[in-house]
Predict the structure.
Amino acid sequence: MSEKAILEIDGKKYEFPVKRGTENELAIDINTLRSVTGGIITLDSGFKNTGSCESEITFLDGEKGILRHRGYAIEELTKKACFLEVAYLIIFGELPTKKEFEKFGMDIKKQSLLDEEMKNIIDGFPKVAHPMGILASLTSALTAFNPELVNVSSTEDFYNSVVVLLGKFPVLAAWAHSKTQGTPLNYADNSLNYIENIMQMMFEIPTEEYKMNPIAVKALDELMILHEDHEQNCSTSTVRIAGSSEASLFVSVSAGVSALWGRLHGGANQAVLEMLEDIQKDGGDVEKYIARAKDKNDPFRLMGFGHRVYKNFDPRARIIKKAADDLFEDLGTNDPVLAIAKHLEEVALKDEYFAKRKLYPNVDFYSGIIYRALGFPVEMFTVMFAIGRLPGWIGQWREMRLNKEPIGRPRQLYTGYALRDFKEFGER
Ligand code: CMC
């Protein structure tokens, strides 16, 4: 039996097909709405009820706290696979065979060197520049150094764009970090794995030997896997919509980096830490900040709490809470900010305001405190999120192109002035 939805406007009925997803979620297909009704559109600011595409990459159920990539549960992926394996799965659709994985890893490593001329660009930034701004600019600048990949018109172009991006993006991120710290720009060491390399490039300084901590690497690997994709969130939708104009993968991802920067999206992990530090400076009175978050006359919100989709719990937060505990135990962390975070979580979870609105700690609540324990300054937190999210942006961009999706171009309901006469200066 085919499912359909009937819309009645001014006594006239219109029929629309209802599509069913793998997990039985339903969507009314309104593709023909404007043409059959003579121009009527739907209004849905924030796209709270609008599916922008059909996708095979990620399934999440906000009520049940489920997150899966290509059918695999996030809990299993974080336990059994590494970041690049999950990246391959998300981008190409299947877990790689050993041979495919080795080739993928080698091709990425071959791209880890940056053109020395890139340094001219980074030299132009002031030291106070936010690393997210530097990262977005340098990612866009990859088009200048790889002009043959500005138009991605074949499978080969796409593959080459993928390995260039995965190879160079963490180096750009590390350079953005070095710029703000005033430390020398490091190069990748191709004898290390992807995550080890990130740690070394970020923290190695010429005067001391860098000692890799395997527990820190494991925590970062898990954290990066947890961030790889999250279906049609703000930055991913940005990447898809930028790419739908046939803009290159590099600039589409650069647009995604910019969208991620905001504090209601990826910037939340920085905002969490800033909030915790504010609470600490203010004497550590957690209850006062809980009261502020509940006060409708106060714009303050509890950063790291709540999620547009997860209205029960964030499965990523559950996994990362455990990694955070292991890491802090290993590092012997005695950070007063961490103690405030734990206290805040405890009080908020018992509070009726948060329970009623289903506001739980999200992944950013814990990721911020892990980054801090690993030694990243707060401005780098969202950059780390961007490294993690890169495979998702790439996979979603690819899917959009493979599905031959039309250029993204929403409609609007115009509510401004009707036609009026122009006024000369003296009349205004
Ligand atoms: N602190 C206090 N009250 C909150 C919070 C919060 N963090 N989040 C939501 N509320 C209240 C909100 O005031 C509203 O109350 P009422 O019904 O009385 O008007 C109710 O809860 C529903 O909020 P909403 O703004 O309609 O929910 P949303 O789905 O539009 O927003 C959100 C989701 C993540 C933007 C929001 O919860 C928020 O601002 N959280 C803090 C920022 C944050 O942690 N962002 C990271 C999100 S996870 C990373 C990612 O995937 O990007």
The radius of gyration is 23 Å. The first strand starts at residue 4 and ends at 9. The chain has a mean pLDDT of 94. Residues 230, 233, 264-266, 268, 293, 301-308, 357, 359, 362, 364 surround carboxymethyl coenzyme *A (CB under 6 Å).
